[in-house]
Amino acid sequence: MIIEKGVLDSFARLVEDEQANTAEGKLKVGVDLGTANIVLAVVDENNEPVAGATYPSTVVKDGIVVDYMGAIRIVKNLKNQVESLLGTELTEASCAIPPGVVSGSVKAISNVVEGAGFDVINIVDEPTAAATVLDIKDGAVVDVGGGTTGISILKDGEVIYTADEPTGGTHMSLVIAGYYNVSMEEAEKIKKDPSREADIFPIVKPVIQKMATIVKGFLRDYEVPAVYVVGGACSFEEFTAVFEKELGIKTIKSNHPLLVTPLGIAMNCEKGA
Ligand SMILES: Nc1ncnc2c1ncn2[C@@H]1O[C@H](COP(=O)(O)OP(=O)(O)OP(=O)(O)O)[C@@H](O)[C@H]1O
Ligand SMILES: [Mg+2]
């Protein structure tokens, strides 16, 4: 099952077309330092998308900054790019971490965003950020990115549990690289080619089952009405069906799964949010 969110369509269009909407009032900025992609998102006070930009990442691995200067450079470039679209300077931002990373890594992530010229006013958990966009009050939000599978469980609008394990899209590419005996770059291309999905899916299915097993472990002590999946690794057509089979819980995917967490980080750009 898929939920379609208009805000995600409008944010995707802005990123794709390299356009900015006019906005009144304070701008809220979110920086997502992902394993696969770095995304900068801007929304207005009403959480309407204003602008955004994205760049492929090799500088962060599962919430750990492995190339500090490279990461700062990319965030600075994205900041400049979006500022020239907007014709205004961006000063404050929020950033996000996979749930459960140690405090030293949290500091490294916010230092990158500060190093790029922002005041970091809030740090949120990635799946919690996604829950803001999807407007979830009850259920589990699972973010399957390039490197990790993170979860936030919400009850009556409150986050009651968060956790994270290293398994993501990179592991799918590893399996494909092994199967076809090709490089990781080639495996990434094959994986994202929709015309090859029918051949690829049986090869990556065990990785999806493994992700579902991880989520099942996280949900052991909680009863949730539904599981919401976001992040690039859930892009496969039959992803939710595999989760539903393993979990026995309704699993819902959103449109533009790659953009949910970054947009949610921007929506959480408020002091003490
Ligand atoms: N169409 C697609 N089909 C399959 N996988 C895809 C597709 N598009 C993107 N991906 C995969 O999604 C992953 C990137 O997703 P995302 O941008 O959510 O991760 P990230 O935020 O950078 O990583 P993390 O949150 O784990 O640090 C990559 O592994 C990429 O190969
Ligand atoms: Mg991510």
TrEMBL record:
NCBIfam families: EutJ, PRK15080.1. Residues 28-134 form the SHS2 domain. SMART domains: FtsA. PANTHER family: CELL DIVISION PROTEIN FTSA-RELATED, ETHANOLAMINE UTILIZATION PROTEIN EUTJ. The gene is eutJ. Signal peptide: none annotated. One of its GO terms (biological process) is cell division. It holds the Pfam family PilM_2. CDD domains: ASKHA_NBD_EutJ. This is Ethanolamine utilization protein EutJ. It comes from the Bacteria. SUPFAM superfamilies: Actin-like ATPase domain (SSF53067).
